[in-house]
Each structure stands twice: as structure tokens, then as C-alpha cells.
Amino acid sequence: MMAALSFAAAAVLVIFSGTSADNSGHFCNTTEYEKQVVTEKCSEFTYMTLHKYILDRSASGLADESDGAIQASVRNWEDYPETSPDCVFVRRQPVSKEVCCPGWEGPDCDIGTETDMMQYNVINQTSELSFKTCLNFGPHYYRTFDGRVYEFPGMCTYTLVAEEPWYINVKMVNCALCRTCRKELDMSFSGTNKITALADKVTVQDDTYYITHSRGYRGNGIIIEKIGDYYYLECVSAGVRVKWDDKSTVSVTLTDEYEGTSLMGLCGDRNRNPADDFKNGTVSFTNAAAFGNSYLVETDDEQICPEVAEAVYHFKDNLIERLAKYKCWVLLSSVFAGCHDEVNVASYYKQCLSDYCAAINSFPEDHAEAEDVRCTVISGYAHECAEREKIINWRTGHLCPRTCTNGMTYTPYGPRCPRTCSNLKMVLPQWCSQPVPGYCCPPGTVLHNDTCIKQEECPCTYRKQTYKAGAVTKIGCNKRHCCQWCIMDFCVK
Q1: pTM of the entire structure?
Q2: Is 63 helix (H, G, I), strand (E, B) or coil?
Q3: From CA 343, how far away is CA 117, in angstroms rounded?
Q4: Which distant-in-sequence residues (6+ apart) come within 8 Å of 13 by Cβ?
Q5: Which tens digits make up the pLDDT trace of 467-476?
Q6: Is 90 exposed, middle or buried (0-12, 13-18, 19+ CB in 10 A)?
């Protein structure tokens, strides 16, 4: 084991030495997503959406129009293209750029930055940060509504956030390891409607649903859907939105009406003062462990849960320290440089270091856990960047690769509302234009039953009856009227 670590550390020393044999530049390729703008006839709406373009309402002079009004206009223009005005469509395309490799800077990328990298100043969160979302990912990372970051290694069920009459509890499932850690949510927003969620499995009262990109849940004022890598639950009446993934990330976003209210739980109180987040009612705590333990929820299916101590990690030796810094350096590198001004990278870097170190110390013969820790932290930072439209194409074949099925591709800039057979011709709400990382269908295809198919393969639904692509049937309508309801033009009189 020590031989392997020594080799890794030696490699780090070479990479960060600050010099090269020929004193030449050290350039690396990175990919950023740049906006591509085109002007086409508005009658080309369906073709453009099929190829991942989004209608720019402002540039097209449609900013003041409702979704329904734009939909009616588009339908008319597609029926009578000679009357169509011009519309502006946009999409983001990956563009390869050459930047300085990690550990190098300057016009020729020939100035070593070992000192700056090794002594990177990990700043604390402050009240100046505008977080409105509480975040929990991995086995023990938390960030409150007010931006306070802490570690709490509790392994049971805890109140994440609550205010009468609603609550959200989080149960840690197999979280001794990062790679096996999952979060089960226990929620209620009306006092009687109990909801549990673990990855795609959602139970509302006694009914179980499996949420996919094509199938969600709507009822009792609750909307649940899968978008990109994440599952979203929204309760409009309570002003609460919950997001989770298949692994260990959970976040809760509240509307502004909660600012200054008496919120409870591990997410803090959202009063723009992170210093007072560690409290439960009128009782304040001086450390994260005591604070977290105070929100333990006793459940019938768990044994007595012991209180946990503070999470303290130390580098065992200089070799592990250098290896951890090398592995986590991508967060500080030019790969994410375009996002550093938007999302504070310091807390993520610190988390990556401590978690990677803990994984190596606990499993010195198995680096798979350490790699999973690193990918969890980096993907968390990349997702926050994406929500601010800073799209980073950071995954590679060697760094946290993702595999795809059913004809899909993985992209850091996926559609929040994927185009399907049923919505291809629809003008979607404006909020659908916000990108999310995840799997999506390649240009020229649409999603149907969680599989990518060509537009001409889409079935039709008319009066609750589904027809296969290319089917010919008499449904008592003329072609124009039918195609207001159907994707395919197969209607006969």
C-alpha cells in the first residue's frame, strides 16, 4: 500500500513542481457551453425544438405574450407558413478551449503555482451569501439556508426542516460509505398527507409510484417529477420545493415568505445570520454534533440511535495530504474558473479534502470509496454552477465518467423539460429553459417511455386511444383538425 501511495505522491510532486524540462507551456483543453443564436421563420418551431433550440421570446418580440397565445400563433404559422414572421432561437453548444493546466498560469502557461495551490485559502461562509437553499450531500455535509457549512456524521433519522404544520425528515441509509449512501425522505405538508421518497420510489399515503422522466405524480397540491439527474417535489401552497437524486444529495428551497420565521431542523432558520443557525427552539449549541443530535427523530423501524461526536479528520501523513490535494485540485483549476465568481468553491474544496482523506484512512486498500467521495463533491459543485447558467463539461473518461442507456447521452446542459412525443409541438413555460445536468436524447430524437426515438416513430393519442406511428384509421376528423391533437398526420375522412 505504501508503495502505491509513494508512487502517487511522486507523480504529484512532478506535476506540481512548477518547472518543465523544456520550459514550454502547459496547456489543457476544456469545454464551455456558448450560446448559439439563429433566426428562422416562426413556422419552423417544431423543427428547431427537435434540434434542441429554445424560442427566445424577448428577441422574437413575444415577451409580453402568454404561453397559450404563443402556442396559438405558432400553430397558425405552421399551418400557414407564408404568414410567419421571423423568430429567434437559441441553444448552447460545447466549444473546446485551450487553458492552462492545473498548477500553471501566465500567458504561456509556464509559471508554476504550487505555493498558491498548496496553501489555498479556504474561507468561511458569511452572511453576505445569498443562499436560499439548504443542501445535504454525502454522508455528513450540510449547508444551511443562511450558508453555514458544517459536518454532522449522524447515521439515523433527523429533522431536516420543519415549520408547523409541515416537516421534512431525512433518514441516512447505508451511509457508513459514500458509495452506498442513500437518503430516504419522510415528508408531510398538510398534516395528514404522508410522503416518503427514496430515489425513484415515492409513496403517497399507501400508494407507491416510480418516478421517471416520462411519469410523474400530481395530486393533493403536490407535483413530483424527474428532471435530469434529479427528482423534484413542489408544494405550492406551502412554498416548498424539495430536490433529491438517486444517491445522497438532498436540497430544500423555500419562498421568501419564510425569511425570519421560526424554522426548525438541520437547515437552520433562514434569517440571514449563519452565526445563530445551531439552535433548537430556544436552546443554542456550540458545535455541529450537539446541534445535529438534538434533531434526532425516533422511528419504529430503527434501533436506539446513539449520539455522535464531532467529525474531525486529520491527514495521517504528508503523502496522503498531497494525494488528496491533487485529487481535489480540479475544483480550483481552470476547468471551473468560469464559475468561481458565481459559486463559492472554497467549502467544496475543503469538503473534498476532508472526505477524501477520511476515505483513504478508513479504506487504505480500496480507493473506490475515495473516488466516489471525490465525484460526489465535484458533481455537487458543478450542479450549483449549472443552476447559475455556468455550464462546465468537466466529466471525462477518467474523471467520474457516466454511461448512458436507451439511446440517451449525458450532458451538463440538459433540458429541464425534455421534449417528448406529446409536447414536441407545445410552447413550454419559460422556466423550462433553465438547464440541468443529466441524460437527454440526441438532437433529432425525442423521449418516449424513457427511450429516445425519432419523431416519425411517435405514436398518437386521440380521445384516450393510442395509435402506432404510421397507423391508418378513421377517426372522423379532417387532417387539420386532427393534427391539433396528434403528432402524426395520418387522419382520413
Answers
A1: 0.69
A2: coil
A3: 19
A4: 322
A5: 777 666 655 5
A6: middle
